[in-house]
Amino acid sequence: MNFQIRQAITSNVQGDSAAEFRDTVEDAIERGDEHLLPGLGVFLEKWWNTSSPDEQQQFTEKLSKAFQN
């Protein structure tokens, strides 16, 4: 079986509104199920690839701080 997780996740959320994406992310975090982590990873990858260098820098600075606590 040739299962492409990126394609599956993209198909499942294509056309979702910003509110729907927020709900999806918050639900995944609230559940805490590890099987949802690949989906969040796909979201991060899509965001990263469409973000400016400044946005990426801000994100990595916040991420670094979050893991220092």
UniProtKB/TrEMBL annotation:
Induction: Expressed only in the forespore compartment of sporulating cells. It is found in: Spore core. InterPro entries: SspI (IPR017525). Keywords: Sporulation. The keyword Electron transport does not apply. Coiled coil: none annotated. It comes from the Bacteria. One of its GO terms (biological process) is asexual sporulation. It holds the Pfam family SSPI. Belongs to the SspI family. HAMAP family: SspI. This is Small, acid-soluble spore protein I. It comes from Ureibacillus sinduriensis BLB-1 = JCM 15800. The lineage of its organism: Bacteria, Bacillati, Bacillota, Bacilli, Bacillales. The gene is sspI.
